[in-house]
Write a structure and sequence with these properties.
The structure holds 3 protein chains of 3 kinds.
Chain A: H1 2-20, H2 33-46, H3 51-59, H4 61-84, H5 96-104, H6 106-118, H7 127-143, H8 152-177, H9 200-223
Helix pairs in contact in A: 2-3, 3-4, 4-9, 5-7, 6-7, 7-9, 8-9
Chain B: H1 3-28, H2 32-53, H3 74-105
Helix pairs in contact in B: 1-2, 2-3
Chain C: H1 3-26, H2 30-50, H3 54-79
The chains are: A mainly alpha, B mainly alpha, C mainly alpha.
Chain lengths: 229, 118, 84
Amino acid sequence: MIRNLAGLIITAAAAAVLFAMAPGLDVPEELHGPAGYYVENGLEETGSVNLVTAIVVAYRGMDTLGEVVVLFSASTAVVLILTLIPMATGPSRPSPVVELTARVLPGAISLFGIYVVTHGHLSPGGGFPGGAVVASSFLLVLLGTTGMPGSSRLLTAVESLAGISFGLMGFWGAMILGQFLNSTVIPGGTPGTLVSAGLIPLISLAIGAKVASELSGVFASYRKKGGEA
Amino acid sequence: MNYTAVFYWSLAVTAMGLVLTGIWGVLTRRNVLRIALAFTLADTGVNLLLVWTGFLPGRGAPIMDGTVSSVVDPLPQALVLTSIVIGVAVAALFVVVGVLASRKSGSADVRRMKELKW
Amino acid sequence: MSPELLAAIAAGTGVMMLAAAVAALTVKKLISAIIITGFVSLSASVLFFLMNAPDVAITEASIGAAASTVIFLWGRGRIGGDDQ
């Protein structure tokens, strides 16, 4: 009772704070500051048609590197806890509908995921959603079988290689052009085609591979019994 | 009735309402998984609010394929991409630690999890 | 899209999301709460698309509605028992 009352009072205070700042939010007429610069110069400087991918990978590449580190540490912690502490009860046999779907669909889903990853600079998408789609196709395969996933070493190897290659590509930009994660080390290409935008497709590939293998590793560790290496 | 203003402000009210519902849920619920769900709801609300601050009505999506002349602000969208991925990582850790704590104390009620012995 | 249609979709989705969020925290069964939270994430993806943010919409739909729901379902499978 006291808990509910205190919760309501604190929520009402938070609501008062939020709505007190509402009159200060008005619609700006044009984009100022860094956003205006990115909108005007993004296409010429990076060659990527998708401005959000240009910002995430090229202009604010350091933030993406930090996010990759956060995702890596969280997934490593989850897999570590689930490996050391036995928790699983063993999988039950899936129904025939799930079994049939798990044989037919994962190819199409993975193809769509790879398309989203590699066309990150041309259409909405990029490394993160594409990697999540590929991981969900892996989850479908997991749900359609009853055996243990046997490829966790391969997943760990792919994840580590993708992370290292992201850093190495940044250093490549630093060695040639003097700026970490400068995406114009690979020149040429007309904007709007697949081969363009410098390093951005390669970095998207690295991010997509890393996110896909991380999430797949987390889903696979849910299936394992735990208490084994 | 100015329908564009209704559209614009209903988005903000939805996002703020989600954040407040999430805060209320974290404060008043007893099951540890429900607290994790409320946290995820608040996270979704904050992401909505962030993208809303960069939204200018009447402009197009930030993909410059030659036909779009004025775009919405792409900077909050880039930040929210990062935030969504970090939100799922935090949810995964929250759930795993919650399951561990409930196994150790015997029930999923947070009022029973009082053994913070260091 | 016409302004009336946009306003109707945004207001209707907003009311539905807020009602679903309160319902997710008050229903008795945990598995219903998890699925309702996945539905709120999916509606947020629709709102992101209405705000001209297709990248964020795809990311929220694939990560927030799919991966997050799987994580919660695993947790519910380990805890069992439903209460507030």
